[in-house]
Design goal:
It contains 16 helices and 9 strands. Helix 9 crosses helix 10 and helix 9 packs across helix 11. It is globular and about 60 Å long.
């Protein structure tokens, strides 16, 4: 199906665009009353994610309501460990929790490589429904968690400031860590390929906990596996978002992906210098900027766009939009990106 708005695809590939495309991480979620109305009818997040028709509905809401240039499928990075045999719970106001974790060889042996079509068919069905209902209006983004981030949850069992249990395994049993990371990687590659087959136009790999590793360990236990995923996904553009991995930006230029996501602590000009001209950069407004008065949101957004210039850029926040941010503030950000970036590019002509 031909896309009516293919700005995101063209920007990812480094092709000429009339303006900078814009979308937000976590755009399909709690900031929207329409999302909360759907979720409140159900037992919670997991039931919503596992109900394809409703997952498709909330995926499309930001396109209709906010005017973003892409939809991102409503799901969770933790569907992969569940498909591998390690189920999770979503505890209200506390986040994910794994009743069982991976700490021994026996725990590892009890896992399996996820079968995307049988174990994660509900996500694939949601993608198919979403694609049909979008009817080519905007691209659909598929996604997965990076192996290191998934590893963190599988070993730690929940979110953490330090993920000390997960990091301890890297020192005490690096062989076991590699075996688990490889199993996650193989499962993730199959899952992303299945998402693409179902209709995803781009995919993004989220390494949410990249920043808790030092440079050497990040190369050894995260970047290596992300590179394997990037090398395997050749069908559509790939974005890698490694939050906090500012020390790895020069190495990121070698990843076989089109786009590198920047968090709000990654300086734009130094990031361009370190990553090079052959990658599209995505980001990177501080999500907290959207708490400001409208005029300040406009100023901050224009400043960001001026720093990125008219080179390869996809506008986004430096992390997911926070759940208590006013959707009207999000619209100010989106509309400013659209209007101001169009002026910048027309002035260049």
């Amino acid at each position: 199906m031909e896309l009516q708005n293919d700005l995101l695809i063209r920007a990812a590939k480094g092709e000429k665009v009339e303006r900078t495309p814009v979308w937000l991480m976590r755009q399909a979620g709690r900031i929207l009353p329409e999302y909360r109305a759907v979720r409140n009818k159900l037992s919670g997040f997991i039931e919503l994610a596992q109900t394809p028709e409703l997952a498709a509905e909330v995926t499309i809401q930001p396109v209709d309501i906010l005017g973003v240039d892409a939809a991102i499928i409503f799901s969770d990075i933790l569907v992969i460990p569940e498909a591998m045999g390690l189920p999770y719970e979503m505890v209200e106001k506390k986040g994910p929790r794994f009743p069982k974790t991976i700490s021994t060889d026996e725990d590892l042996k009890a896992l399996k490589k996820a079968d995307a079509k049988s174990d994660l068919g509900y996500v694939l069905e949601a993608i198919k429904i979403t694609k049909k209902e979008l009817n080519g209006r905007v691209p659909l983004i598929g996604f997965a968690g990076a192996p290191w981030t998934i590893f963190c949850y599988m070993v730690e069992g929940h979110g953490s400031k330090t993920f000390s249990k997960a990091r301890r395994m890297l020192y005490n049993d690096p062989l076991m860590a590699d075996q688990l990371l490889k199993l996650i990687t193989d499962s993730t590659i199959e899952y992303l390929k299945a998402q693409i087959e179902a209709g995803a136009d781009l995919v993004q790999v989220f390494d949410s906990w990249a920043g808790i590793l030092g440079p050497e360990q990040y190369q050894r236990f995260s970047m290596k596996y992300i590179a394997e995923i990037c090398d395997a996904i050749t069908e559509v553009p790939v974005t890698v978002f490694s939050k906090g991995a500012y020390f790895a930006r020069s190495e990121m230029r070698h990843l076989n992906c089109e786009t590198i996501g920047l968090d709000w602590n990654m300086d734009i000009q130094s990031s361009r210098r370190l990553i090079g001209e052959n990658k599209t950069l995505q980001g990177n407004l501080d999500p907290c900027a959207l708490y400001a008065p409208d005029i300040e949101i406009e100023k901050a957004t224009k400043k960001m766009l001026d720093e990125f210039g008219t080179g390869r850029h996809i506008a986004n926040l430096g992390h997911g939009v926070y759940p208590d941010i006013d959707p009207n503030k999000v619209k100010v950000f989106i509309n400013t990106v659209k209007e101001y970036s169009a002026k910048l590019r027309s002035a260049e002509i």
